[in-house]
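Example record

The entry below shows one chain as it appears in the dataset: sequence first, then C-alpha cells.
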Amino acid sequence: MNKVLKNSWALFLGMGFLMMAYGYQSSLLGVRAVQEEFSLAATGFMMSGYFVGYFIGTSTITSLISRVGHIRVFAAFASLASLVILVHSVFVNPIIWFILRVLTGISMVCIYTVAESWLNDRSSNKNRGSVLSIYMVILYGSMGIGMFLLNFSNPINYEPFILISIITSIALIPILLTKKKPPTFKKIKGMPLKELYETSPFGVVSAFFYGTIQSALFTLLAVYAASMNFTIFQISLVTFLLAISGAISQYPIGKLSDKYDRRKVIVISTFGACIFAFLAIISAGQMYLPGELGTSKIWFFIFLIFFSICSLPMFSLICAHTNDYIPKEKFVAAGAGIQFTFGLGAMGGPFLCSIFMNIVGSNGFFVFLLFFHALIGVFGVYRMKVRATVENPDSQFVAMPSTITPAGIELNPTTEPIEEPVKTEDAQGTTNL
C-alpha cells in the first residue's frame, strides 16, 4: 500500500482536487438553476449536457492521446474545465450552460482516461486491486468533500465559480511537476453491442437503465433538494451522504454477490432501492405538514442513505454479472461495452427525470428513480427464469466507479495479467516506476 501511494501520490492528489471541484460544480449548477428559475425541463436538458460530452469524449480521446501524449492532453482539458466553469458565471442561460456542460463532459472523460491509463501503467499484478480501491475512495471521498463547499458562498454570487476554477487549476500542479514518465497508451476496443447482448442480455439492459438512474441521481439531487426548500447546508449534506454511503456499501454487497447468485443480489438491491425511494417520497411529503403532523428531515436523510446503499453498487454488480458469462480474456472488452451502454442511458437520464418532476412535482425525482429501478428488477426476475446461473471462477465482484474508462477497467485484478512496470533511471540516477 505504501509503495502504491509513493509511486502514484501526485496523480491521486491531482484527481482528488479535480473531483472536489467536480462535486462542488454539480451541486452548484443545480442550486443556481433553481435560484435563476430555470424550468425543470431546461434544467434537466442543461445537466444532461455533461453526459453527452462524456459520450463524445469516449470515442475521441484515444486517438488524441496517441497523437499528443498524456501530459499535454491532461493539462489541456483540465485547463478547459477550469475555464468553462468561469464562463458559467458570465452567461447564465440554459442553452449556453448545456454547451458548457458538454465541454465539461469531454474534459472529464479525457482526464479520467489519462489518469486511469497512468495508474494502470504504474501498477503490477500484485497491487492493481489496491490501486483501484484507493482510486475509488479518492474519487467518492473528494467528490463528497466538494459538495460541502456549497456552503462557501451563496450560489447566486460569482465567487463559487472562481473557487471551482482555482481548485481545478491546483489539480494540475502535482501532476505536471511529477518526474514520472508518462505511460505507454494502448487503445482498448469494446465488444460489439450485439455480441455483448447475446452474451448477457441482463447486463446490457440493466446497464442502460442504470445509466439513466445514476446520471439523474447525481445531477438533479441538488435541484430536488433546492426545490423542497432545503437550506444550503442541508443540500450539501444530502449530496455528501449520497456519495459516501454509496461508496461504503460497495464492498459488503459485492461480497454477497460472490457468495450467492449475482442476479438475485442485483434484483434484491434494485427492489430495495425502490422501497427506500418510496419511503423518501412519503417522508418528504410529511416534512412540511403543519404542527405535530410534520416529521423531521432526519427520516428523509436515513431513507436516502439506504437508497444509496442499495443503488450505487449496481454498476459494479452489473459488470461482475456480465463477466460471469464470458472468458477472462474478454473482461476488459466487455467492461468497455457495458460502460458504452451505461453512457447511452446516462445521456437521457437528467432530461427524462425533469419530465417526471414536471408531471408529478418535485417528488417526481424519486418516482423516476423508483420506476427505472423497478424495470431492472422485473427484467432480472424474467432472466432468472429463462437462463440458469453460470459459475465462472474467474469472475469476482470488484468495486469500480461508474465513471471508469476501459483503461481503468484493466486495474480489475480479475482481468488478464498485465506487464510489470519497467524500472528506468533518469539523468540524476533516480529510479522511476
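Notes for this example: Residues 2-177+186-417 form a domain with the Growth Hormone; Chain: A; fold (CATH 1.20.1250.20). Confidence is low (pLDDT under 50) at residues 424-433.
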